[in-house]
Amino acid sequence: MSNPSLLILAGDGIGPEVMDQVKRIIGWYGDKRGLNFDVSEDLVGGAAYDKHGVPLTDETMAKAQEVDAVLLGAVGGPAYDNLDFSVKPERGLLRLRKEMDLFANLRPAQCFDALADFSSLKKDIVAGLDIMIVRELTSGVYFGEPRGIHIEDNMRVGINTQRYTEAEIERGARAAFDMAMKRNKKLCSMEKANVMESGILWRDVVTEVHADYPEVELTHMYADNGAMQLVRAPKQFDVIYTDNLFGDILSDCAAMLTGSLGMLPSASLGSPMANGRPKAMYEPVHGSAPDITGQEKANPIACILSFAMALRYSFDQGEEATRLEAAIEKVLADGARTGDLMGPEGGTPLSTSQMGDVILAALDASL
Ligand code: NAD
Q: What is the CATH number of the domain that holds 243?
């Protein structure tokens, strides 16, 4: 059987720096665990624009459609801020998400004990936190028609439309229930069924899908209450399923419970391919961080944790994903810190590649 295939799109700014550490980890799995991947690399974002005049070529898009998973670093930077909207680096990312039809965005919010002091919440509220937000990514108010700004009675009116079909709600719900089955079998669906018809439909469809997942405990919550509960008692949740707009806000809120942007991975999944694997792209939540680019200061953990998600969700290597996450937990517990994780007590931060070194050493020690 051929090796699973990975397309690496490191992108701009710190993207290539953090991805270099992921490449070392991928190499480790080949050398030490006999887990080999067919890795190819290509350009996205400003790097693709510089070479080809577009943020993603048709050839790269076609490759992304063929591989088992895409790993993306970050896109964007000040050099591209004034480009025409159609060729801005972010357009490359949006094209990948749209054409691969990646409808389920997985955003874990996990608090490593060693970093619990970094949260803006009290330590006991976040220590041990491990929740997963599944956000519908390809529909809802960001895409609904009609939209635009027009004149009515001599006044400008801005319009966006929240629109969901039951099929769109259902496929995301199945992804969320599947996720709950792999975790603690608890799913909380969040909408605003009290004031939005799309919310009523959302609640109905999620309840219908629940019939196929009797082992999962399903609850419903209004999204505004969900925001409150996330900061009041976040550990009450296991998996949260919500729409594109609420998910955008709630996942950022949940992310900040855990401290630094440099720690946050994500996955975006689509429908299963012929080989049964879902279409998938894995990427850190952070951007290209132009303020620290080229200085070996970037924290590579978000990108490495994104690869751990690929191991778990694309390659059925849950145990190896846990090994990698445990290695990261271990180095943090031992005090390894990049600059973004330094507390007021100070100390000497590790460089990007030094953080890679200690994680590789912890992986070796796990054998
Ligand atoms: P950013 O995430 O790049 O940076 C925000 C702050 O967090 C910066 O101070 C940065 O130094 C720090 N930071 C981010 N990641 C870090 C890491 N791994 N280690 C240490 N520190 C880290 O957000 P921004 O500054 O708003 O945007 C910069 C560029 O990135 C813009 O062009 C923006 O459009 C783009 N962007 C891209 C993505 C993406 O590729 N998915 C996401 C967000 C922003």
A: 3.40.718.10
